[in-house]
Design a protein that fits this description.
This protein is α+β, with helices and mostly antiparallel strands. The chain has 1 helix and 12 strands.
Length: 168
């Protein structure tokens, strides 16, 4: 049986005998090499896509909040301490949970507000009510270009009077 092989003289030269077998073995080896490369390349692409998907799926929707004074969040009073903060929801409207270890201390609606530049540090802002009580108005995180706006402060326009920042 003869196999067609490209040569310099003619595009349709035929091989026979030992040269044909050598050519067939060489082509099989090359085919296996190409198949291995294809598998490795495809596997690498799938792995990188999975890694990227995990990175986007893990977009941070949690953080840490250190409160230096007693503040009111929703209807709950939150005392001085370090709390875990998690939010769920799509778009800018989210549900914020403030937790002390596993226990939920407060659960309130909030709004994710985009910032022009990343915050320099972690912290929170409060509003002082006429009675003197402080309510949690916002939470911001170091290196993030968003903040969480809470309660009446979640309206895009807020009045600067009576508002104070606490940075950690």
């Amino acid at each position: 049986m003869a196999f067609p092989v490209k040569s310099e003289k003619s595009n349709h030269a035929f091989l026979s005998g030992e040269r044909a077998l050598t050519h067939a073995r060489t082509m099989r080896r090359k085919g296996k090499v190409y198949m291995k490369r294809t598998r490795k390349t495809f596997g690498g692409m799938v792995a990188s896509l999975l890694f990227a998907a995990c990175a986007f799926a893990g977009t941070e929707s949690k953080g840490q909040l250190k409160i230096a004074e007693t503040v009111t969040v929703g209807s709950q009073e939150v005392r001085t301490g370090t709390y875990q903060v998690e939010w769920t929801g799509s778009g800018s409207n989210v549900e914020l949970r403030i937790m002390d270890r596993w226990q939920t201390v407060s659960k309130v609606p909030a709004q994710l507000v985009a910032l022009k530049r990343a915050e320099a540090g972690d912290g929170y802002s409060t509003n002082t009510e006429p009675s003197g009580n402080k309510t949690l108005a916002g939470i911001f995180f170091r290196g993030k270009k968003y903040e969480l706006s809470i309660g009446a402060a979640s309206a895009v326009t807020t009045t600067p009077s009576g508002k104070s920042d606490a940075r950690n």
